[in-house]
Amino acid sequence: MASKTKERKPGRITIACNACRSRKQKCSGKKPVCEQCLEYNRPCNWPEQLRRGPEKGYAEALENRLQLTESILLNLLPHVSDKQLATALPPKEGRQDHSTPYVPFPRLEKRGIESWSQFPLDTSHGIRRWQHAYTDPERAGLDGHQDLPSPKRRRLQNEGSSTCNDTSASASIPTSGIGGAFNGTFSPPSLNISNSIEEYPTRPTKANEGNVPLQTISSWNGAPSSEFQRHGDRKGYCRGRRTVRSNPHPPPLQKGISVELLDAGAELDKQPRAAHYASAATYELERAGVLDDLKERGFSPKGFAFRKFDTSFIAGINHASLPEDYPYKMQVLPLDRLGQLLYEHVQREPKAAVKWSHRVVKIGQDQGKAWVDVETTSGTHRSQADYVIGCDGASSTVRRELFGPEYPGETLNAQIIATNVYYDFDRYNYWDSNFIVHPTKYYMAARITKDGLYRVTYGDIPGLSREQYIARQPARYEEILPGSPKPGDYQITNISPYRMQQRCAPAFRVGRVLLAADAAHLCNPFGGLGLTGGIADVGNLFDALVGIHEGLADDSILDKYSEVRMRIWRDIIDPMSRENFRRLWDQDPEKALENDQFFQICKKSETNEALARELALGLDVLRFDMTQFYNKTNNTDDSRGKL
C-alpha cells in the first residue's frame, strides 16, 4: 500500500505590510520590502509589532512598587486635609457643579523594572525626582521615545564648573541645515476652511492656550544670570557645519545682541538643497531684514498643481489670489544662495562674527553659563556663552551631547532621488511647482531659479547603492518625465539619493542649551514644512531670548519655546508631511479628485477667491506669537548692548 504523504503547506504569514493591508492584498511578509511592493515599486512600511506579555519579573516588581506607593500614601494622609485630598480626586460621575475644574495629570506611559529602579521611592529626594519626571514627561525627556533621561543630559544639568577664562556673557548657536528638499505649500489634511478672509495677518496670531500643553515651571534650576539681563556687551555662539545658510540671524543684531556663529565647514555650503520659503518663513526673513534682497534674487511662484502621469490637471492652488502688495508671499531661492545673502548681511554687522573650521566636539553648562569645546586648525579651545543654540542639522553634535545617539522617530521605507535639472517643462504647460500622482511613477518638478533650473524629486526602489541610483537616473527620467527625454535633452547639475526621516528630539531645551530646525526635528520634503518650520523655530527662539534680554520674560519662556515648537511638529508638521507624501502614490489618480478631500477643496478654490487666498497661506499655521508669554515689566535701563 502506497504511503500517504501530506503536501507541506507554506507557512502562514502573520503580518502584512501597510501597503498590502490597505489594498487587502496578500503579502509575502518578506522584510524590509515584500515581494508585492517590490514588484509595483511602491513604499513598503510595516506596522509596529508590540511585545506580547510583560517582561520577566514584571509582576513581582509591580507588586513591590504598588506596596511601597501605598505605604507612602498612608503615611502622608494624616498630614493632608480633606479639602486638599478632594482636589486630587476625579469628579464623581454625573456631577456638574465643580467650583474648581479637576485637571488630572497626563496618563503615564507604561514603565518597566529599569524605570522603577532609576526612581526609587525610599527617600524624599527620590520621590521628588519621580514626581518631576512623571508629571512632566516631555520636559524630562520621557516622551514615549525613551524611558529615562539620558545620563548625558543629567550630567550636563549637574555639571558645575567651567575652565573658560572669558568673562563676558554670551550665547552660542551652532548651525547647520534647516529643512529638506522641497517645495510647495500643502494645507493640513484636516484643514477647516472659512468662507471669507477679513485681512491678511502681518503678525502671528495668538494660539488658543487651552490647546497647547504649556507648562509654567522652568526645566532648568538656574535662572538667567543677572549679567544676561544687565550686561552691556554679550555674545551668541552658533555651532554647525553649514552655519549662515540656514538661519536668519540678523534680528538679534538689530536688538543689540552680539552673535557668533561657529561652523565646522571651511566655507559656505554650495549644495542647493531646499528652495521654497512659505509665508511663515518670509515673515521671519522680513524681520531679519533680508526679504527684499531675497525677492530680488529669487522669485515668487504662481502656484502649484497636482497632475496625472499623462500631465493632465487634477487640482492646484493659484497664488495669484494674494494681493500684489501682500509682503509675505512664498519666495523661491536655492538655500546655498540664501546662505550667501545672509552671510553678506552678517558681515555688515560689527557685533556679529562667523568662524569657519570651528567644529564643536563637546558642550557643557552650569547655572551661570554654557560652553562649547571647539576643534580648529590651531587646536582645541573653549568658548562660553549665556546660551548655546544647536542648529547643526540632522546629525547634530549638540543634540547628541544632550540625548545620546538616538533621534526618536523613523526612517521611511521609501527611496527618494533629488535632482536639479534644466529641462523644458513649459512646453507641457507645467506650473512653477507640479506633483505627479501615480503608484510607482510619482515625482515632483518645481522651478527653483529665474533661469529655469528645476528640482525634480522622484521615487525609486529601496535598498540600492548611491552608484546604482545614479546609473538608473537616465532610465527613470525617460520613464517618468513628459516627452520621455534622453540624456541629451536635459542638463543635470546635481543628483542626491536619500532616505526620508520623520524625527523629533525629546526636548528643544535642556537648561542653557537649545535646539532648532533639523537639529530638533525632521520631516520628508513634500510640502516644504522642514525648511519653513525650521525658520519659524528660529523666529520663536529669537522672541524668547529677546524677552529675557530686555527683562520682559524669565527663562521659563524657553520651556514654552520647546513645548510650542514640539507641539507644532507633532500636530502639524509630522502628520501633514506624511499625508503630503502619501497623497502622491497611495491612491488611484483617476479617482483622486473624487476621493481626496484636499483636492476637492483645491477645486473649489478655482471659483472662490477667499478660499484660494487661505490655501495659499496654509503654512501660516507654523507661526506662533511667543510674546504672549512675556510676563515682566521692563524696568531695566537701555544700556544693554548684546546677548
Automatic annotation (TrEMBL):
Keywords: DNA-binding, FAD, Flavoprotein, Nucleus, Oxidoreductase, Transcription, Transcription regulation. Residues 158-175 have a biased composition (Polar residues). Residues 16-46 form the Zn(2)-C6 fungal-type domain. InterPro entries: FAD-bd, FAD/NAD-bd_sf, UbiH/COQ6_monooxygenase, Zn2-C6_fun-type_DNA-bd_sf, Zn2Cys6_DnaBD. Residues 135-146 have a biased composition (Basic and acidic residues). It holds the Pfam family Zn_clus. GO terms for cellular component: mitochondrion. PROSITE patterns: ZN2_CY6_FUNGAL_1, ZN2_CY6_FUNGAL_2. Residues 134-183 are annotated as: Disordered. GO terms for molecular function: DNA binding; DNA-binding transcription factor activity, RNA polymerase II-specific; FAD binding; oxidoreductase activity; zinc ion binding. This is Zn(2)-C6 fungal-type domain-containing protein. It comes from Penicillium canescens.
